[in-house]
Design goal:
By secondary structure, this protein is mostly beta strands. It is about 10% helix and about 30% strand. InterPro entries: NA-bd_OB-fold, RADX.
Length: about 300
């Protein structure tokens, strides 16, 4: 069929009602958002953002309402899509934006692709990876993996991806989303090592839209976390330890979920796997801990400082 590109869409969308099909690859995936309210009677008040790209650049794609339970789990980072009968809208200005793995990629930020069950009813087709042709010019998924030895030099709020061997995972805790609110965020703390430092990655892992993975994080699993943000507070004396927290676009993977993921081709991931092969499993198991209360950042050592 006759295809269009994201770049062409941005230039011509105001003058068109009907758009040609799009061929894109998913580069980022947000957590699923529930926006239901008691006074609004909606059957499926769900929404999810994806960042999709072709040879011309990258644009946001929004999956709405009943399409979310139908498609969300099938649309993975790296998936190639053929989209038809979609709508184009001006971008929502306040949503979070992931940091692209390829810093040279052009981002089309003024408009977004809207996928709905009606007005018009979108047609979504997943193209199997073995049928994807090089001449389509679709970009590969790129990552920003760092090692533990590189972490201490990174600035606050820097975006990165990490892989490590889990040595500690805490119990699931919860924090109020807003003061006096009855909605809570679920999160747990984890430590992971990668052999490049005697210090672990300290990871604050909020529950993403992957409950099957979040509940199964345990010591000795290979943990991959993407789109993590560096948190460091240099105002304290001494400075509190640096840690990483999940963002709206973070994805978490553990042993059993890695097969077929695009990051398995990354050089730093391959280096980590080589390091784990040189380790004694029995020695590492002795150093692992699970559960319990993990006060972090640690409280001051005296009431006076508190």
């Amino acid at each position: 069929s006759k295809l269009t590109s994201l770049g062409h869409l941005e230039m011509t969308w105001r003058s068109r009602v009907r758009f040609h099909p799009l061929l894109v690859r998913i580069l980022h995936k947000s957590r699923l958002r529930y926006y239901g309210k008691p006074e609004k009677k909606m059957d499926m008040p769900y929404q999810a953002y994806f960042e999709v790209a072709d040879g011309s650049g990258m644009m946001s794609m929004v999956l709405w309402n009943s399409l979310c339970p139908e498609w969300y789990n099938s649309l993975k980072v790296g998936t190639v899509l053929l989209l038809d009968k979609y709508a184009i809208k001006t971008s929502y200005p306040f949503k979070t934006l992931p940091t692209p793995g390829d810093s040279q990629m052009k981002r089309f930020a003024t408009i977004e692709i809207s996928l709905n069950v009606r007005d018009p009813p979108t047609e979504i087709s997943i193209i199997p990876e073995e049928m994807v042709k090089p001449e389509w010019g679709l970009p590969e998924v790129k990552y920003r993996f760092i090692t533990r030895s590189e972490l201490d030099d990174l600035p606050h709020n820097h975006s990165c991806d990490v892989i490590g061997l889990v040595t500690f995972v805490g119990r699931v805790e919860r924090a109020r989303k807003r003061e006096h609110s009855e909605d809570f965020w679920l999160y747990r703390w984890a430590h992971a090592i990668d052999g490049t430092s005697n210090k672990p990655f300290i990871l604050e892992l909020f529950a993403t839209s992957q409950p099957d993975v979040f509940e199964r994080i345990h010591p000795m699993t290979y943990l991959v976390c993407t789109q993590m943000r560096v948190i460091r507070d240099l105002t304290e004396n001494p400075p509190s330890p640096i840690y990483l927290t999940t963002s709206n676009e973070s994805q978490i993977f553990i042993t059993g979920w890695h097969k077929g993921q695009p990051y398995t081709k990354d050089v730093k991931v391959k280096n980590f796997i080589q390091w784990t092969k040189s380790q004694s499993e029995a020695d590492q198991i002795k150093k692992t801990v699970m559960g319990g209360y993990y006060p972090f950042p640690r409280p001051p050592d005296s009431f006076f400082k508190f």
